[in-house]
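Hi everyone, sorry if this is the wrong subforum. Our group has a chain we'd like a structural model of before ordering constructs, and none of us has done structure prediction before. Sequence below.
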Amino acid sequence: MARIKGKTAPYLTARFLKKKDANLFRWGMAPRLIARGIKAFDLYTGGTPFSLEDWRARGFALDAVPVFHDGSALCTHNDGLPMEFSRAAQTAQTLVAILRTHDGRIAASTIPAPKPKLRTITALLDAYFKSSKFADKAEATQASYKSWRPAIDDIFSQTLLGDIDDDLIKDWFEAIRKARGHFMAHGAFRLLRIAINWAPKRDWPNMREHVVGLGLKTPPPKVRVGDPEEMALLLHAFDDPAGFASIHNLRLNAPLPAARPAMGDALILALWTAQRKKDILAFTEHAFAGGRLRWITSKTGKPIDLPLLGPLPARIRLALARKRAAKKDHMELISTAHANAPYRLQTFSHHFAQGRALAAKVRPSLIGQGRDKFNRPYKTFTFADCRDTAITRLGKAGCEPWEIAAWSNHAPAHVLTILRHYMDIDPEFADSAGKKLERMAKKLGIET
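Answer:
Right subforum, don't worry. Here is the predicted structure as tokens:
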């Protein structure tokens, strides 16, 4: 008795028997075939083959008659062979042809092992994207990974995972960097490294050694920190566009945007809590109970518990008063002015761009025009840059790294990486360090 699996066959239990001068193999169906009502049947490898008419009489199409490699047809002692058996018979023909050359000694080893599946990098990415590891990532992270994938597929679509090496990855990285930019190359390499590190856990070749220590240059972090004047202008443009235009004597060809104090609320929340846009737009009234902000963040699922400081308490009180006066029944604090609905991300981005364009009439740096005091070109200020600004302000306030991590809701182990990514290290930090050094020297009487 042996259980044998062909290239596309169901498992069949084969038992060698002798009947007159014929070799008989009795095939038992796999459980999933038995569940469909298909019963075991016998096939002969000797005796008189059926003619085509015999097969046609049993309901087989002439192009579906099972035959051996030597051209002889399978025989059966079941005169009323149902149609379902034709597939099983065709599947069994190759197995029977091999088995009958072994004088009835049936063993699984008589069947050649199936060729292993090609483990290409594209197949690895397909498997990773279907995994729970990928599914557990935040939506924004998943979107980033998907945007990086084409840079891998374009070069490595048919490359076997086992064929990569350090030089190949370095050449690919440089090609992507030149063609699509440093950030795309770094992101694509990051995705490739994540997938390769995940691979051994799913019985893929272990190629981890080829994605570490390559010396690939990391792009500079995309940090854009708004200065106090820029933030004040933005806030004024959101809260009172007409007053803003009047104070700054602006002559505009286009109509002024509508006053949107909710946009100002969102700006203040971002600058004083260092939270992401998605969470700020989702904050409910109950999140601000008791003079604190308590919330579960959308990206990490971690709780935050921050005191409401500075302008936050007054802004929140006014926002709640406007919401109740307008009889809005949704729970979100930040909402559009003319609809009983919270902001959608696209509408919010559009309204932010309108207010920024107005403020840029006074400070063009907000839309990426001009250069800073170090002659570096300004980057356009986006709402996401409020997080950079908030974290940098915490650093300038003298907060320790772990205090900043607790406020911004980052893991303590990643504090230094966070500061490098979000914080703009400018001369004010050096001035602060110098003053601390000077105070210590005076206190200890150090003169050298």
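For your construct planning: Residues 228-422 form a domain with the hpI Integrase; Chain A fold (CATH 1.10.443.10). The chain has three domains: 2-110, 121-211, 228-422.
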